[in-house]
Write a structure and sequence with these properties.
The structure holds two protein chains of two kinds.
Chain A lengths: L6 E3 L7 E7 L4 E7 L2 H18 L5 E7 L4 H15 L15
Parallel strand pairs in A: 3-4
Antiparallel strand pairs in A: 1-2, 2-4
Chain B lengths: L49 E2 L2 H7 L7 E4 L9 H12 L5 E5 L7 H8 L3 E6 L4 H8 L7 E3 L4 H7 L7 E6 L1 E2 L5 E2 L14 H6 L2 E6 L19 E4 L6 H4 L10 H15 L8 E5 L3 H17 L3 E8 L1 H8 L3 E9 L2 H6 L6 E3 L2 H5 L13 E4 L3 E3 L4 E2 L15 H7 L2 E5 L3 E2 L2 E2 L1 E2 L14 E4 L2 E4 L4 H9 L7 H12 L7 E10 L5 E8 L7
Parallel strand pairs in B: 1-10, 2-3, 2-6, 3-4, 4-5, 5-24, 6-9, 9-10, 11-12, 11-15, 12-13, 13-14, 15-18, 16-21, 18-22
Antiparallel strand pairs in B: 7-8, 16-17, 19-20, 22-23, 24-25
Classes of the chains: A alpha+beta, B alpha/beta.
Chain lengths: 100, 520
Amino acid sequence: MEVLKPAAAGTLESSDAQVMIEPGDGTISLSLQSSVMNQYGRQIKATILETLSRLDVTSARLTVVDKGALDCTLKARVECAVFRSCGASEENIPWGGAVR
Amino acid sequence: MKNAVGREIPDFLLTNGKEVYQGKNYMDGKYIQKASPRTKRYETPQESKLVESLADALRACGAKSGMTFSFHHHLRDGDFVVNMVMKAAIEELGLDNLTIAASSLGSAHDPIADYIEQGKVVGIQTSGIRGRMGEVVSAGKLPTPAIIRSHGGRPRAIEGGEVHIDIAFIAAPTSDCVGNCRGIGGKSDCGSMGYAMTDAKYADHVVVVTDCLVDFPNMPASVEAIDVDAVVVVDSIGNPKKIASAAARISQNPRDLMMAENVAKVIASTPYFKDGFSFQTGVGGPSLAANLFLEQYMDERDIKMGWAIGGICGPMVELLKKGKVGKVIDVQDFDLDAVRSINQTPNHFEMSASQYANPANKGAFVNKLDFVVLAALEIDTGFNVNVLTGSDGVLRGAPGGHPDTAAGSKVCIIVTPLVRGRMATVCEHVVTVTTPGDCVDVLVTDYGIAVNPLRPDLVECLDSAGIPHVSIEALKDKAYSLVGTPDDLQWEDKVVAVLEARDGTILDVVRKIKPYQLDG
């Protein structure tokens, strides 16, 4: 998928994460803040990158502010931000396909 | 050297007879040489000890650089006294190299972080450390490690001369002109003044700071004029709204209530739950709610609680007024109901921190406790508890009376949700051991109950009452299956805080945390 415009998903509530996505320069750049960085930073980063790769996103700038979200929440927020960024969040979401 | 909870204690800390933690009751039967303060004689009768300002009081007590000042934390997050005194000492008298020995410190004391960064405050000894002070100490800004003690460990260290207090500052809601202090009757009432009592007896000099001067004699006094050098009247010693909350409310959170109900079930399954039993609970959601369910079991079996101790709040005072508990003995008050009750409600008494929890005296109240219900930031598969350091390794908590009540009581129950956000409360190894696992008996979580294998008698109690329980490893696995296995924290070598066990041995150290590198 191609990130066409800036989009955001998620909140700054405890146990959630706020994902902001913008068109990139051909690579993925990730700025990550997390309340559980020391223990889970590595895993959060891996989850975000995996999710992007599953959605075939290869060029994007992401800013993620994590407030201790579980992996399932992180995935959902990243997916939603990507779909919003390419106008694909209204219909034909690939449930069971790229979203699983 | 490795201690009994498997923590590596660096050799440079093991000087002057300091030992590593050896296990519960290791110091039993040994002798302690008590220190004695050098105090000034006031033979010529004085009409009053009032002085104009804190600076005058400091001068009158011969304050100089390098001294240790002590404080108590009954004004909690509303306290103005620590900041006022340190400001006068550093900015008016120009002192430095000062050590603060406090019963606890909180985010009210953020300005002290600046004095640490400026090198004016060089030592911190406390139970609690939070906010900016926790951050600067964790960043290694003190020249010597902070010393963290429990509420019972502190009077032990003071009485044994490990902490020599040059000047003790008493934050007094009321005082008369010669320094008889009480925690009630003023505009910044805190109720019990239990943590200040040992300070007043063992300090070379004692300064009372009050915002409500009352007629002589202010009786019954919590801190007595015979120990006081000077009295200073200030506009305000604290913010009453932050000293005592309106009322500690019992949680309505169904998860808290479910855990509280299970705590009460566990208590009721043991042989210690009989008429006259003794009890202490924290004021956290599920701990406090346990009161409610316990009362139902007491009614059902027609038994009464003999006595309760601790930091006291409204629900316990309510039980006292209903005649369901015989006596309440109180070292600190958390809400206005408790503040208004102490020394007013019959059988609601004040006690000192030493009387409450000191392991080196001849028998503190905690030694007679049947049950204590406590919270935890983390508990590991060895039942070791952390209530001091966050998951980022930064100091932001307080052992308080946790290790003392856990060690003294017959049944210590930890109640905590299995995970908080993405943090596994039940884990492989806690960040810092603040209460050793040999003092912790039962863990109640929202995903199940575990009993310490050191207590087969309690396993039997739960089994015969039909209360299901699992191994603590199973709870840890469940937690990790929900949130993932956390990476180990990365530390530097520098020790920023030493965690003393209540008996004075070294239980753990906190090191400086390495700056986190996501791609490292």
